[in-house]
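Lab channel / #folding
Pinned by the channel admin:
"Please post every new chain as: sequence first, then the C-alpha cells as a reply. Keep commentary short and put observations after the output so the thread stays searchable."

First post following the new format, from NK:
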Amino acid sequence: MKRISILGATGSIGQSTIDLIRRDIANYDVVALTGGRNVDQLARDAIELGAKQAVTCEPALFGALKDRLAGTGIEAAAGDAAVAEAASRPADWIMSAIVGAAGLVPGMEAIRQGATLALANKETLVAAGPLVMAATRAHNARILPVDSEHSAVFQALVGEDIGAVERIIITASGGALRDWPIERLARATVADASTHPNWAMGQRITIDSASMFNKALELIETREFFGVDPSQIEVVIHPESLVHALVGFRDGALMAHVGASDMRHAIGFALNWPERRELPVARLDLAKIGTLTFRAPDPERYPALRLAQSVMKAGGQSGAAFNAAKEIALDAFIAGRIGFVDMAAFVEDVHDKMWSSDGLNRAANSLDDILETDRLARRRASELIAISA
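Reply from TO:
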C-alpha cells in the first residue's frame, strides 16, 4: 500500500489527485491532506479518504476544521509550520500542489525525508532550483513533474540521452486574451483574464496564463529540472492545448506528447510511475480534431517571456525575486490596484532595482537566503505599487 500526502488538496490539482485516489482507495494509505480556507472540502476529503491528518494553512480556521473532524479520529492542525510538519511525515509519494512560493518549504520537507515529490508547484524550482535539486540528490529523493508541459518532456525523454537533446518546445494556449487586439489589453479586467479557453484551473494560474507569466515560470522550471541551456528552450502558441510539449533531438526528430487537456493524465503518470495504468481521460480522435495549429508568441503581447530569459541569464537569486514580485503584482491586479499590462512592468522594475542594490547575483547558500530574497522582493514590489496608486 502506497503512503501518500496531498499538499494543496482543496485546489484544482489537489481535487484531480483525489479523484484518482478515490477510484483506487484500497491501494493508498493517506497520511495528510493540507488546504487553505475551504475547510469544509478539506474535512470531507480527509474523512472520505481516511487521512491521518488534515491541515489548513489559515490559523484562524483551526477551530472550524477541528469541529468538522470531531469524532473522526483525524488530527487537525493549522498554520504554515503545521503544513511543513505534515510534509515531513513519512510518505512514499507527496503531491505538491500549493500555489505560489508558499509551497517551497513544504516541498523541501518532503524531499528531506527521501519521498517521491510529485511537483505541480512551479515556484519551488523557479525560486530555489539549484538548492532543491541538490537536496533531491543528497536525500535520495525523486521529483516527478506534474505540470502538463514538464510531464510531457519527462515522458518524451524516457530512455533517451539528455545529451542528444537539441531543443525543448513548451506549448502555450495563449490564455483568455490571446485574440484581443494589443491596444485593448490595458483595459482587460480580472473577469476577462480569469476564463481559460481550454483548461479548468484556479483563478491565479488562469490569469497567469493570460499574461503568460505561467509560461515564464515554466521556462525557468524547464531549465532547472532538465539542466538544459536557456537557448534550447522555446515557447510556441498552440490554441488547441493538445500537444503539451515537444523534444527535438540532434538528428532532427521531434518527439511530441499529445493528449486531452486534462491534468489527471500528468497526475496519474506521476502517481503510477514507472508503470502506466488506465486513467479516466478522454481518448483523442485525431480525424475529428483535423487540425493542430501553432504560432510564435508575440513578444510585445507577452513581455513575461522576455523577462524569464533575462532571469535565466542572470542566475543567482533572480528567480526568487522574479516570482515574489510576480505574486505581488498579480495580487494587485486582482485587487484592482494596477492594470493587466502593468504587471510585467512592475516585475521588471523590482528585478532591476534588486539586481543593482540587493545582490541578486549571489547564489543562495540556504533556503533562508531564498526566503529573505522573497521577503525583500515582496516588500519592494508592494512599495512600488503603492507609490503608483
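NK: DSSP finds 16 helices and eleven strands in the chain.
TO: also worth noting, The two ends are 55 Å apart (CA to CA).
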